[in-house]
């Protein structure tokens, strides 16, 4: 029974991220917010919400675009100001790096780093459970090892995405404060 719970937990962990859409909106304070559930977006911001299929897909596209453009020049892309757009006030004065604001870069880095930390914690918990196998059935042991392998693959994938985002940020000239 315990192994079934472990398998279900791991399956649900990865199932939510497989086809996740991320809803992004900026509140009245200028804070960029993310949610994977449209019902959690306050009604007054739903008209301004942006939808991303998956942050990691955009990161990979950014890297591909940066690599295509990076062959021509090794210098970072200049920051572009959105100032001058009508009706945007202070928000229009923010600098953009590679088509994204500093807050968007910061959010993407934070998302991937949090995912990496969470995966590391889960791996550590499973390794701790494997340290004492005396009261564990063979099936439990094999299920934990399978879950551990899945988590390690996920960690490697998130690590690659974080590296790709770092490369894209470097090519876009994103300052260290947004990483």
Helical fraction: 40-55%
Order of helices and strands: HEEEHEEEHH
Give the neighbour order of strands across the main sheet. 2-1-3
The tally of strands reads 6
Strand content: 5-15%
Number of domains: 1
**Nearest-angstrom radius of gyration?**
20 Å
Principal-axes geometry comes out as elongated
Largest sheet: 3 strands, antiparallel
Weakly predicted, low-confidence segments: 55-59, 69-75, 80-93
Distance between the termini: 43 Å
Secondary structure class reads: mainly alpha
Number of H/I helices: 4
Mean pLDDT: 75
Protein architecture, described:
With 179 residues, the protein is mostly helical. The chain has one domain. 54% of the residues lie in helices and 11% in strands. The protein has four helices and six strands. The strands form two sheets. The chain has a three-stranded antiparallel beta sheet with strand order 2-1-3, with helices on one face. Strands 4-5-6 form a three-stranded antiparallel beta sheet. A hairpin with a 5-residue loop joins β1 (22-26) and β2 (32-35). It is elongated. The termini are far apart. The model is unreliable at 55-59, 69-75 and 80-93 (pLDDT under 50).
């Amino acid at each position: 029974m315990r192994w079934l719970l472990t398998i279900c937990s791991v399956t649900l962990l990865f199932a939510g991220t497989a086809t996740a859409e991320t809803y992004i909106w900026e509140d009245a304070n200028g804070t960029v917010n993310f949610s994977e559930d449209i019902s959690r977006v306050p009604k007054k911001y739903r008209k301004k919400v942006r939808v991303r299929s998956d942050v990691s897909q955009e990161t990979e596209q950014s890297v591909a675009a940066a690599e295509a453009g990076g062959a021509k020049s090794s210098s970072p892309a200049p920051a572009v100001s959105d100032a001058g757009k009508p009706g945007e006030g202070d928000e229009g004065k923010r600098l953009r790096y590679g088509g994204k604001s500093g807050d968007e870069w910061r959010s993407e880095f934070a998302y991937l780093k949090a995912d990496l930390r969470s995966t590391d914690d889960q791996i550590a918990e499973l390794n701790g459970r494997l340290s004492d196998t005396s009261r564990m059935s063979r099936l439990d042991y094999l299920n934990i090892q399978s879950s551990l392998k899945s988590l390690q693959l996920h960690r490697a994938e998130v690590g690659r995405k974080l590296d790709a985002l770092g490369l894209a940020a470097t090519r876009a000239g994103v300052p260290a404060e947004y990483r």
